[in-house]
Amino acid sequence: MISGIILAAGASERMGRQKLLLDLKGKPVLQWTLEAALSSRLDEIVCVVRELKEIRQKIPLRHEKLRWAVNERAAEGQSTSIIAGLEAISPESEAALFLVGDQPLVKPELINALIELFRKTDALIVVPTFAGQSRNPVLFRNNLFPEILELKGDRGARGLIEKYRQDSAFLEWPEETPFLDVDRWEDYERLTRSS
């Protein structure tokens, strides 16, 4: 079993408003990410949010693979959302794929390719790259869950990619589109034009 964890509890400080609910071609930004994950070969998806009511009003998605987790400690940084997601997935999970909610053009094909590479190798971490640079989403084997649960503050699990580089598998992706995120208003405008 492979779990997807969508990190969607950020404060959107650089944007100045809740970016995950901005309309992108008729749907909220986060809904695009959720639908890509649901269309992929992930066995379950946990979406970690800061506050559920407004998100559920704007995104009425229902699916047997999808569950929501509220991170009460979101203000303490990204590590708390990673931990909340990991604690919410099935204990049977062999690996967790961490997606970011503000990457609306992520494709099921990319997610499936990462899962396939995981299945074919003994890699502890499977990382997509574009132009030689590591990108999101990143898949971690359950052997690393105890270390991920020790993360603190506003730090993601990127440090583990450096630490376990020799035990990681890298998937070079031919286009940048799935990795584009919405951090600033200019990013949102660019995505609105290009998607």
Structure description:
The protein is of the alpha/beta class and 195 residues long. The protein has one domain (2-194): Spore Coat Polysaccharide Biosynthesis Protein SpsA, Chain A (Alpha-Beta Complex). It is 31% helix and 23% strand. The chain contains seven helices and ten strands. The protein has helices spanning 29-38, 52-58, 78-88, 108-120, 145-148, 158-163, 185-194, and strands at 2-8, 23-24, 27-28, 44-49, 66-70, 95-100, 125-130, 133-134, 138-141, 168-172. The strands form two sheets. Strands 1, 4, 5, 6, 7, 8, 9 and 10 form an eight-stranded mixed sheet that branches. The longest helix is centred in the middle third of the chain and has 13 residues, at 108-120. It is globular.
Summarize the structure.
The chain has 195 residues and is α/β, with parallel strands linked by helices. The protein has seven helices and ten strands.
Mind describing the biggest β-sheet?
Answer: 8 strands, mixed
Task: Estimate the helix proportion, in percent.
Answer: 25-40%
CATH topology: Spore Coat Polysaccharide Biosynthesis Protein SpsA, Chain A
Q: What would CATH call the class?
A: Alpha Beta
What's the mean pLDDT score? 87
Q: Please write the string of helix (H) and strand (E) elements.
A: EEEHEHEHEHEEEHHEH
Q: What is the CATH H-level superfamily? A: Spore Coat Polysaccharide Biosynthesis Protein SpsA, Chain A
> How many structural domains does the protein architecture include?
1
The counted number of beta strands is 10
3D shape? globular
Rg over C-alpha atoms, rounded to the nearest angstrom: 16 Å
What is the CATH architecture descriptor?
A: Alpha-Beta Complex
Q: In percent, how much strand structure appears in the residues?
A: 15-25%
| Total of DSSP H or I helical runs spanning 4+ residues | 7
Structural class: alpha/beta
